[in-house]
Prior knowledge:
2 copies of one chain form a homodimer.
Chain A: H1 11-24, H2 37-44, H3 48-60, E1 64-67, E2 71-74, E3 82-86, E4 100-111, H4 114-120, E5 127-137, E6 143-152, H5 159-162, H6 169-177, E7 183-192, H7 195-200, E8 208-217, E9 223-232, E10 238-244
Antiparallel strand pairs in A: 1-2, 3-10, 4-5, 5-6, 6-9, 7-8, 8-9
Helix pairs in contact in A: 1-3, 2-3
Chain A binds a DNA duplex through residues 10-12, 36-38, 46-50, 52-53, 55, 66-72.
Amino acid sequence: MRSSRVAGQPRYAVVAQALTEDILSGRYSVGAILPSEHALCTQFDISRHTTREALRRLQALGLVTRRAGVGTQVKSNHIAQRYVQVGDTISDLYQYAKDMVLNVLEMTDIEADADAAALLGCSKGQAWSKLRGVRVTDGGDEVVALMDAYIARTYRGVLGDIDGADLPIWSLIESRYGVVPAEVRQQISATTLSRAEAENLSAREGDPALRITRHYLTEALDVYEVAISLYPAERFTYSNTLRIEHLASVS
Amino acid sequence: MRSSRVAGQPRYAVVAQALTEDILSGRYSVGAILPSEHALCTQFDISRHTTREALRRLQALGLVTRRAGVGTQVKSNHIAQRYVQVGDTISDLYQYAKDMVLNVLEMTDIEADADAAALLGCSKGQAWSKLRGVRVTDGGDEVVALMDAYIARTYRGVLGDIDGADLPIWSLIESRYGVVPAEVRQQISATTLSRAEAENLSAREGDPALRITRHYLTEALDVYEVAISLYPAERFTYSNTLRIEHLASVS
DNA sequence: CTGTTACGAATGTCCGGACAATTTGTCCAC
DNA sequence: GTGGACAAATTGTCCGGACATTCGTAACAG
């Protein structure tokens, strides 16, 4: 018996709603395989086309992934907000280094002690390369930021490419190793410059500054780069524009 | 005559690729209406189902919008990077006010002078309501932020709801007027507290603080709320996690 | 001139069927 | 055991058709 059509609700929406609830409530846990298209067709007494439309919605919501030969797998048990980054100012998440050059001051290989392990989110003793440098404007006449970066030892090879580069480090890693950032965690806080920091930045002690810490993670959620940048307030404002994507609700 | 199938390329991908190039190159400008599904079916000699699959891809890339009775309209002439916000910390873009209460200090109606017009991105003389308040923790024992907000006079009605609210103002406007933010522009900068600011925040003069300015815009890109918040550094770090969406390329 | 109605055009919602491509696992030969 | 051939299950790619819903506009009525 065909399930009766609810007023104003397309059939695929009914199915999508039901499956969404099952996923959000945990009846299907993350990693579980949903019933096959054929099974859903039988269960809801709808055509395969309609079933696929329903599953397409779940996919658009980021709840499931689909693979031929495998099935429909639950990817996430909550619906995340989606943003589209617009504009291309110097300070955009991925473009903040545009028109700037990175001059290396110091490079060392380290094994993470307790402090570093906490910062980097790794176990004690893990091997990293540490780098200290300044970002200067393309002409080289103004220091914009002081940066400490930690790079997983695996990608040590980029160290040679960094001095004088006008690209972010993660981008150098990408072109050399093919590692793309899949997730970026950032913390932005306010601070005042210490004597030593002010010296490197040709600013005054006590001046306000923005401290931006970014963790770059691979698809497998391994941290492979951490960058901590210090931007004197008068030379830098972090700004971005986010456009909210209007996701078609399943209901 | 049916267009021959390129090796490894589904038919819909060929169509999607062709249309994408036409949009990116500007042959179809933003706002233009693409040929109808029927026309594309004839042009490429494919079924309507295949045509719709191609257009679905363009939609997923954010290049077009589709409306029944109208057609497929070009929305953007470039492919933007997509981020998905994950996590739900206190400082997430839309959740930063969680577990906090807003206490109003002062409310006034203003007409924008030159300074205000520049800040709000409106013409001089436009009518706004200005509000000064502090965000305190739920228990009320700690001041977390000092906030100046400007609300378009049209939504003046929310002013009565604000004192003591534990929601962001835009959220109050949404529930009362049905206005949803479609775009948010934010600037984050570092500063040090002035004497007066420190007093309101029970902090010390010269302490570092984060100044976050947010413009909330409607779908039509009208600014309807501007919030400027001052967070003493030791009580607040702005942090968020962005997951990069792997958009299926059309090719 | 203004408000209403009617029509056409476009996308949205469904159904049916067929074959291709991908993946996983089983079974057999070596 | 190990490797390869094979089969089964699953999603992906296409085709055809039918009717519903939405929206702009043109014709019409007042």
